[in-house]
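To whoever picks this up:

The nightly regression suite flagged TIR domain containing adaptor protein as changed. Nothing in the input moved, so I suspect the structure step. Input below, exactly as stored in the fixture:
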Amino acid sequence: MYGWLQKHIKSRTTSSTQCGKGNIRENSAMPISILSTSSSSSSLLPLTPSEPRQLRNALNSELRWRQKYDVFVCHSSAQTDIEEAIRLVLFLEAVPRSLRCFLWHRDTCPGGAISTEFCQAMQDSHIRALLITPSFVQDDWCNYVMHQALAEGPMSNRMIPLLQNLPHAEYPQEMRFYYYIDLSKNPDHGFSLVYRTVYRYLENLTHNETKSGCDLSDSVCGGDAHKRVK
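Regenerated output under the current build:
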C-alpha cells in the first residue's frame, strides 16, 4: 500500500510539473493542436539581478491593478491569426512576465453582445495590441475595435500595431502615423518588443504613482517645516 501511494504521488508531481511548463490556464478552451505549436520564447528575456525587483514594482503598482487587463489582443477569426494571438498571449502570460491578457474567444462571456464585450474589455485594458493581417483588414469587428481604440486615445501611446504578412499598400490609412512591430520575419523578437513596450508603460505608471506620493509627502513636510519656522 505504501509503495502504491509513493508511486501515485510521484506520478501526480510529474504531471503537475509538465502542466506548469506549458503555462496554460485551466478551462482556457484553447485547442490542443494550437497550443502545441506555441513558440518556446519564454527564455528570450534573461533578467539582470536588478530587474526582478523593478519588475515586481511595475507589476504591483496600484494603478496597474485598477484595470482588469494589461493587454487587449485584437485579431481576426482566421485560424492563422488565432494561432498567432494565442502564441503571443502564452508568451506574455508566462512567468516572470505574468501579464494579464484578453482574448475574445477565451475571455468573453457566453451570451454577451459582441460590441459590448469588446468595448468593455478595451476600457478595462491598459494596452491594445492589434494583430494586423490581411484577414484583420477585411474583418468588420477588427476595424470596429481599431476605430474605437483610435477614438479613445489617438496619441495616448496605448496602442501597439502588430503587422504580419500584410503588403504595405494594404496597411490601414488610419494607422500610418503609428510605429508598428513587424512579426513577419521574427515573431519571437516581436513578442519581446511587445512585452518591453507594455513593461515600460507599467513602469511609467509606477514612476508617476511614486512621484505623486513623494510630491504629496514633500508638500506635507514643507507645511510642517513652515509652521516650525514660525
